[in-house]
Amino acid sequence: xxxxxxxxxxxxxxxxxxxxxxxxxxxxxxxxxxxxxxxxxxxxxxxxxxxxxxxxxxxxxxxxxxxxxxxxxxxxxxxxxxxxxxxxxxxxxxxxxxxxxxxxxxxxxxxxxxxxxxxxxxxxxxxxxxxxxxxxxxxxxxxxxxxxxxxxxxxxxxxxxxxxxxxxxxxxxxxxxxxxxxxxxxxxxxxxxxxxxxxxxxxxxxxxxxxxxxxxxxxxxxxxxxxxxxxxxxxxxxxxxxxxxxxxxx
Length: 250
Fold this sequence. Notes:
Blueprint: E1 2-6, H1 13-23, H2 34-41, H3 51-65, E2 74-77, H4 80-91, H5 100-113, E3 119-122, H6 143-161, E4 177-180, H7 185-192, H8 216-249
Parallel strand pairs: 1-2, 1-3, 3-4
């Protein structure tokens, strides 16, 4: 199964991948990630990203996805959907060279590339389980920027939940599942276990995961987190409407 971990910066994606590989050690992850590509080519990124950076990273991600087949067990740090989110953000900024034509060029590439994934586990920002922002050379720690990216992710997730035909970024067929995971490290793995069995395969529609009494308190925590996230999704939907309205005016 081909899995991607997606979401805005500073939400524990790298940590989750490490925990995932310990839980499901039959999986691998590519030796080189988009972060390595950025470093090796000294590319501007995050708030400073450019058309060239976004196109190069998109092609790097697509090429990496195509190295694996449906039967492989692999987990990716981000995927082309992440690239699309950051391009949409930059498109709305006055100092960016990402214009509407560039976005239109990227959309079909992103949409078709997602057929090479089976599941995208999305880590949203949630007030119930905040993640401490840690700086490094490839991470933008501007909280406003991080939140704006998260809102775009949530808007696309809402389109997925309404039916992927509502989104220009998702394939109508062979669309990967988009599943939220949040909470602390164990809670995130616990949520993943509801979709992935001990052999690393996707649980069937008739499969069930029986929860013992020892995790009942965790379930209550997750329900509390979900209520907080529902409030935030309304803001994400409004942002996506603004993005669409801006495109229609141009």
